């Protein structure tokens, strides 16, 4: 048995959480489709500054660095920025002092009595809910009344509590992955165009040609600090595009914030005639390469799976889950779940969520997720 295989065998059924140091919807979707729902932690790295610093350290200009070098540097910068943030939070939690008070309202006898008295009303309301509008369900669902109930509590010293839960914490690991993509055409590196004018000019240059897309990956084991970095590569051939097609594509806004000014999974997919290499790398994250990196760190890829139930199965079990609440920010696998409080919540695997986000004032769309607890 190889050293890596032996290490994996020793870990047993360890579960591994993956933190994605990116706000890319495409990367998140690729992972989710593969059964891995990542925690999103945007790195906020100053990419031009990171490249300049790396170039200065080598005594060269950024332009003299290859596309492969650049994406590797940026992937590492993103992953390590999130890693430093993770360590800060972990160290703060470890040094915390005080008491942890946990309340158990469902264990209160009065709550059970209240539940019995209202069960007929609640059952009637839930039956009515199943035939009503989805959004209306949330507003009218019965919620248990715990007012006036003496809720049983338990108080722990926060360090004792941490010690009791240490074995559980030790059985779970955290991996942090940072990625960056760059397109190379005729010897010139293309990142994100940011403006319609730049995007249109680049797409016109790319029309009918074949270029190479490089995607850097940096994976960090948060507990040990071990790091693996690799780069995927794929050749992409574009169709000949008319000026009208270029104009229409740029007006969608899709190519403005993606490397190379195109997307395989969106409007741009119709203009890509061929791919040689890893197609996942073109989407922003290579699953085969990431799996290899996970194994290099001594883990098994299935340890990352945290979404085993297909969305179609969830919809079959609860048709209401096919309808998303208005203005709701959701992830694959989300649906209506029944809580012990008596109310339906929108969440993932039975967990309700709290989202703190920044919205664009003009469109109302979420632009930055500051905090998400699910």
From TrEMBL:
GO MF: nucleoside triphosphate diphosphatase activity
HAMAP family to which the protein is assigned, alphabetical: Maf
Native source species: Gardnerella pickettii JCP8017A
InterPro entries membership: ITPase-like_fam, Maf-like
Ranges of compositional bias, category Low complexity: 119-133
Name this polypeptide is given: Septum formation protein Maf
Region of interest (Disordered), ranges: 111-136
NCBIfam families with a match to the protein in the record: maf
Cofactor needs: a divalent metal cation
Keywords linked to the UniProt accession: Hydrolase
